[in-house]
Structures are given as structure tokens and as C-alpha cells.
Amino acid sequence: MVLLTVTGMAGGVMYWPAGEAPGSAVLGGRMAAGAPVTVSAAPRTPSYVIADGVARPAHPTSNRPTSNTPASNTPVTGDAVATGQVGRLATVESIAAARGVAPTGLAARLRSYLASRPGHVSVAMYDAVAGTTAVYTDPAVAGYETASSVKLDILTALVRRAGASGRLTAREQALARRMISVSDNAAASALWADVGGAPAMNAFFARLGMHATTAGPGGKWGLTRTTGADQLAVLRAISYPGTLSAAGRATVSGLLKTVIPAQRWGLTGGVPAGVTVELKNGWLPRTSGWVITSLAHVHGAGRDYVMAVYTKNGPSMQSGITTVQGLSALAWKAARSSAAAG
Q1: Coil, helix or strand at residue 234
Q2: pLDDT tier at 142 (50, 70, 90 boundaries)?
Q3: pLDDT at 27
Q4: Which of 45, 103, 207, 211 is the most buried (most CB within 10 A)?
Q5: Helix (H, G, I), strand (E, B) or coil at 127
Q6: Could you tell me the pTM of the whole model?
Q7: C-alpha neighbours within 13 Å on the C-beta side of residue 209
Q8: What is the structure's pLDDT at 14?
Q9: Element (H or E) spanning 120, and its range?
Q10: Count of other CB atoms within 10 angstroms of residue 277
Q11: How far apart are CA 71 and CA 61, in angstroms?
């Protein structure tokens, strides 16, 4: 068991790119050897203990369980979750006037909701029942980090390469399950290399028409930059006929169903029990604030839509999750029902 105790901000035990101040835990790099390690604290910032890939507060304040949203004592695996707050390095910025298409009642509600939320947001939703797409992106930001949501992109690229069979090799299947179900970073790094790294992923993005997406450099797949609108291309590819074979879509869907309960937050917000939500989330503390991302295919009770949400510069992990779950609840209410449509 490797034990890493991080108090306050992630520091020298994580890997960050040149020019990024210590305090940014960048996905795709490796933890430094040696444990336990303690990093200096920031005032009143919760500390987390990471053991066996699971992050828990060192001093949980409550043992009461919650639904959907990870509470302060809920295990969270996968991304390099080192702090519950970014502390003094956090910035809280108002949402700028959003730009989008498909002016609908949903558009007005999303804009009104985001006006009261901190950080920057890019959100997109495709409603397969209505055949409409709504896109809203804060124009103050050029590109949103994917964090671990890019793992779904990696998986989609692998399955597309497999062709009509949609079958991964035994090694790829084992790594893909770890990468998706518990958001294992080492497995993602291995598959990122297998698929051909940044050049191959950039070619994959271009084939899907994702012109605002650029693969993270130097193996730092978590720093891939994208928008909600671009990620709809991946979500539509895995959810509906066209890009992948039926067998390939089944491969991806089967793996998404294995995501552990502790990571089933975000675009599950406001969705009734019994409705299928196949999702992949990402979370990443940076010097400018938290990155929280969520991708999902939601289908059931007559509704069928895909949705992508990217947030950055949030004051805390929980703040970003709250933003995503609020958008999710609005989307569910606005989605057209096939039963209602007749």
C-alpha cells in the first residue's frame, strides 16, 4: 500500500508542466517515488489521505452517507484529488455572457443558473428525441482541461481502431476497465501510448470534427483542451449509430456501466432512479482553481440525450460538482419525452 498524505495543496509529489506553479496536480504524469510524503498546509484547508488510489479526508467531519454528490468523507478515486479546496490560490470569477445556439427555454434557464455560479463553464446537450442541440460556452476561456473525462475519448479511439468487431485485446480490455471503472491513471497512460499518443488523438479529434480540441502534450492527457460542444461528437459516436459499429458501442457502454458508485456524481443530478446514466467524470485541482468535468448519455423514461459539462477556476471540488449537478437537473426537466411527443 502506498500512502500519500497531502495537506493543503498538492505540491512536489505531483507532476506539473513547465510554467505551472506547484499546487497543480496534472493528470498523465507520475507521482514521485517515496511515501508517506507531507506537503505544507494552507490555512483551514482540508487534508486528504490517498491510500490504494482512494482519497479520503484525514479528518472527516461526518459519517452520514449522501446520494450522488460525494460528501467530505466519500472515497473518490482516479484523478489526483489532493485537496478539498484550492485555498488561497483559488479564484472565483463570474460567468461571462454565454454564447450558444438553439435559443430555447432551456437556454434561458441555463444562463440564469450559470450567472450565479463561480468559475467558467462550457456546456452542451444533444436531445436525440427532439433532434436539437444547445451549446453554451463562457467566451472568456479558450479551451477547458478535460482532466479524466478524456479517458472516454481514449476508449472511443481504441474501439474505433478495432473496426466492426468493436473488440479490444485482452490487455486493452483489462486496462480499459481499470481506466473507466475506477478512473485509474496508470491504465490511461498505457492506453494513451497504445493508441499513439497526442498525434493519434489529435487525428482522431479531427476525424470527428472536434476542431476546438487539442491533445495534452508530452503524455499529459489530462491537459487535453476541449469544449462541451466538441465532446458531443464523442458522446454521439458512442451512443448512436454512425461512427462506431453496434459492437463497438456495446463495448463502450458495457465499460461505462462499471463506473463505481463513488464516481457517479455530476450528470446524474436530478435524474430519477431507474434511468440509465452512462458517464465519465474528471476532477483536477490547479493553481487557478478546480477543474470539474462530466460526460454522460442519459436514457430512459422516454428521454434520450447526451451532455457534456466542463468547469474550471472553481473555488472547490464541491462547488464544481454542484454546478454540474444543477445543469444536469435543468437538462433532465427540459429534455423532450418521446411519450409526450406522441
Answers
A1: helix
A2: confident
A3: 58
A4: 45
A5: strand
A6: 0.74
A7: 7
A8: 27
A9: strand 120-127
A10: 21
A11: 10
